[in-house]
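Annex B, item 7. Sequence and structure tokens for protein A, then protein B.
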Amino acid sequence: MTKLVRTIHFNTPLVMIKDWTIARIPEDESVKLTSRGQISVKGTINGHEFQTILEPDGYWSHWFRLDDKKQKELGVKTGDTVSVELTPVKEWPEPTLPNDIQKALNAAPEKVQQKWRDITPMARWEWVRWVNSTGVDATRAMRIEKTFSKLNGTHRRPCCFNLAACTEPYVSKSGRLMQPTA
């Protein structure tokens, strides 16, 4: 059994999936992390500090996106191999709420809005992931409705979905990260 560690170190090429540049965590390093699901991390890329949420890839490893702004800041591009150091942290940044979720939250009863404020950022990330894990508009609308219905009851987190699946519909298929396009 692989010993769990606080910090992992690896080199990885930046690859393109559709028009996103991502870094995949090598499986032999990812297994040293404490979760197969999302993980909040701080670390460095080529010595530059950053913080992100590692996303599961559906293959028992992780990945993260480097948007154009972050690539420019780091002086890297798709095709470059980068040196990465990552340490899991307990602090989770607030998730960015998609407009439809924010609109539903704003219209929700005060009890639901209060519970949303009371749950952890990690739990908020899980609700957003669950809603985002479908590319079907009708299913998404149903999940938003269920999110706030469950928060109006006793639930604080979504249940019954695979936390180790890749839930970003733009770059996944059937719960797995797509293969690089270039």
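Protein B:
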Amino acid sequence: MTVDLHPSYLVGQHLSTYDFDLPPELIAQFPLAERTQSRLLHVTDSVMEDLVFTDVKKLLREGDLLVMNNTRVIKARLRGHRASGGIIEAMVERVTGPNTAIALMRASNSPKAGAVVFFEAADGRKCEACVTGRQGQFFELSFVEPVLDVLEAVGKTPLPPYITREADEKDIARYQTVYAEHPGAVAAPTAGLHFSRELLDELRAMGIEETFVTLHVGAGTFQPVREENLENHTMHSEWFEIDEATAEAVNRAKREGRRVVSVGSTSLRALESASVAPGVVAAGPMDTRLFIAPGYRFNIIDVMITNFHLPKSTLVMLVSAILGRERIMQTYRHAIDARYRFFSYGDACFFEVPDAVKAR
């Protein structure tokens, strides 16, 4: 499926118009004691309503289809040394095979192809890898043992760069959705962190359906936009898969006039990237570089549940495509004034997509 990397609706749009002042103390450094304790800001064209996350039961309707991302966060942060003794830090970006991965690496001297490195855990266990080449800024690594086994044994939870503390034991469970299944992400699909098993059970009992996509979130999600003219920015690539059962569930909901509710930007990007016509998605594995900003017309989603995002980020541009830049800036000003918690461990929004921005 071909994606236009520089769609025409980006022409004339500027990065600086998506900026806002965020007090640093509103960046959540720790999760709340309970997942569902988060606040929820409900926003439409005409409504701005302060709620708690369990109020999602009031906002969802019988027959709604929740689409969630069941990727599992891997312990992608590695530390170790070269065979020659130099210190190495690595952040796995993507697992490319049973024993291979690509990673960002930081060292006093950039390792060359053929260099042997040893990654180690606090208990002294070591795992060996060899640098086999480069893909742009990423290093290709070949491990002696299976990659996922290595990461589980010696890796650390890869908290986002705006969380300024070291990951601890609690993050292993809390920086993971309760429905995480397929390992491969280096960042959590954070809108899903608000759902507990009990809340999902209650929603099912209300007649709300659920289905899953798998999109392995990469470290590229944190890369800043450096182009003032947005038409010059190229989105990072992310792999995802929609299976036949999910495609049929989504297509059936659209045929029957039921709402498709995207839990997070990753589920949204997967659904919209897989759309082959308004109301229709195709199944299969794909890569997406879809850049959603005001002017985009939504083929699939009717509601989005999401966290609050970074200033000047592509995710702020994405939610601005739903309700318009001015309305989103109003929303964020309200959230700051009302002391909502921001980013991965922060609070959530419930956005209803107006008919005016849906494809026909």
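Comment on protein B: Residues 8-73+173-357 form a domain with the QueA-like fold (CATH 3.40.1780.10).
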